[in-house]
Amino acid sequence: MYNALYGGEVKRKILIVDDEDINRELLGNMLIDDYDIAYAENGKEAIDCIKNSDEKISLILLDLMMPVMDGFEFIKAYNEDQDLSSIPVIVMTSDTESEAEIIKAGAVDFIKKPYNMPEVIIARCERVIELYEKQQIIESTQIDELTGLYSKEYFYEYIRQMRTSGFVEDVTMDAISLDIEHFHLINEIYGHEEGDFVLKKIADIIRNQIQDRIGIACRAEADTFYIYTDSISDYQAFLDNIMKEIDDIAFSSGNIRLRMGINESIDDGETPQSIFEHARLACNLIRGDYVNQIGFYDSNLHDEQIYNEKLITDIDQAIRDKDFVVHFQPKYSIQHGEPMLTSAEALVRWNHPTLGMISPGKFIPLFESNGLIQKLDEYVWETAAYQVSRWKDKYGITIPVSVNVSRIDIYNPDLEDTLVGIVERYGLKTSELYLEITESAYSDDAELLVKVVNSLRDKGFEIEMDDFGTGYSSLNMLTAIPIDALKMDMSFVRNMLKDDTSLKLVELIIDISRFLDVPVIAEGVEEQEQLDTLKELGCDIIQGYYFSKPVSAKEFEEFIKA
Ligand code: C2E
Ligand code: CA
Ligand code: CA
């Protein structure tokens, strides 16, 4: 018999418990070809045998009338002991009265004495063993061991049963996918034990939250939980409740942020798998979003998924065909007289043969989520380095270009070698390529970031901290990381003439840059008034539509000539 629990063809062991030698021998001989056999003369010996056996016992054949401890007493002890009660018992009896009684007490089946039909006995033993093992497999997959929630497969099965039984017929049901933001970091930084602890606690909280609802939950994967529940009218309140319970528990892993994707009012025709894939998609789409913690699925998302899959499939071909175009946006220094071109930022676009021009906002986050960004970034860095060297040859001056280094690139152990290799290939100095690293990369792994930035800087690269003001770096973090420029996030510039807080923040950021003794760059400057204000506040460098949109390398030459 093949069985997944045992991983193949194994001879099972049967324990025969009977005080009469002749009965033990008779039964033993019938079964010995197919099974290993152990013998006991009474209930007490049987218990000892089970407890001391190294091998698992798959079935007990139990006589009722025995000295020392009879079959009834054995069954009593058996029911109270988990080790014992996981083994099926077949009772051997000649007395029909006690059969009903003993089956009620816990045996699965009985065999009539005398033993005159060996095939029937063998078949019964085989069937009972098989049934029990199957049941064990089912049980072992029903429950996720760590959290005690259902396993995903069982969860789906449960939903099917709830539906077919008509239990949720008149109820509007929602599907929720819940993720822990940056869970892998909790594991990496605080260890797997802490990670497990967090998962268990969150499972408890989920259980708490749904106990008064029509709802079930499972752990679908590592840090992803699924909840099937009657419709919740206020999801923000629901999430707030969960977050509040989380805050009440002290995790050494600090702040835990959840992300929730919701597929509302699901229709009965959709399979449980697809219902939750959609909830999960909604959840994935807000990954890394520091504002929205809740995402709702709508069928347009499905189109987006198909679109994204196409982008993933097409990336390699696009790199080979040079469909990724690198544009350049000039940066001007504004503090000394007339604005002066100082450098440029390389920004990638995708000129897709069938989908047309695609902006990086559509594919960068996607490629960051699956690691493909490394390939693309390398291509952009190389293209930028090539341009710098061409302009150098053509105009005899260096226009340093800053390239974006994704937070994902920070994890690449070859990052430095790759960058140095590119620069050398085009005969440039490392100081002619600037690297823009987003401030929010801090929250991924501050220690690693400091290490990587330090070593890149030692090689001579200039580091600009991008999107400054949106991340969470504190002043002492900033002093720990040596940077060469701060790029103020665009949102401050956009709002600074509209609200006072933004203006104050712009001032604060400029103060911080003074404190760190690095220039500050403002991007997203579109209007004269913004430029004037920034200049007055002491901002050093400006990038934005006011001067130019990102343009092709060829168009950019006009700025160099000017
Ligand atoms: P970012 O690094 O913050 O780049 C600045 C974005 O602001 C660019 O958007 C730029 O076109 C836009 N911008 C510049 N001036 C103005 C302005 O005056 N007004 C407005 N409204 N927008 C302005 P873009 O090119 O769409 O790039 C978006 C983001 O995609 C970039 O944000 C960057 O995070 C990422 N990205 C672009 N190229 C690359 C790349 O090669 N590698 C990586 N890893 N990320 C890239
Ligand atoms: Ca940038
Ligand atoms: Ca930026």
Structure description:
This protein has about 550 residues and is of the alpha/beta class. The chain is built from 21 helices and 21 strands. Strands 13-14-16-17-18-19-20-21 form an 8-stranded mixed beta barrel, surrounded by 4 helices. Strands 4-3-5-6-7 form a 5-stranded parallel sheet, sandwiched between helices. A 5-stranded mixed sheet has the order 9-10-8-11-12, with helices on both faces. Helix 16 (about 445-460) links the parallel strand 17 (about 435-440) and strand 18 (about 460-470). Helix 8 (about 185-190) packs across helix 9 and helix 9 (about 190-210) packs across helix 10. About 35% of the residues are buried. One calcium ion binds near residues 466 and 487.
Short précis:
By secondary structure, the chain is α/β, with parallel strands linked by helices.
What key attributes describe this structure?
single chain; 562 residues; alpha/beta; eight-stranded mixed β-barrel; five-stranded parallel β-sheet; elongated; disordered N terminus; binds ligand C2E; binds calcium ion
Shape: elongated
Hey, roughly how much beta strand do the residues contain?
A: 15-25%
Number of helices: 21
Rg is 35 Å
Low-confidence stretches: 1-8
- What is the spatial order of strands in the main beta sheet? 13-14-16-17-18-19-20-21
What is the number of E strands?
21
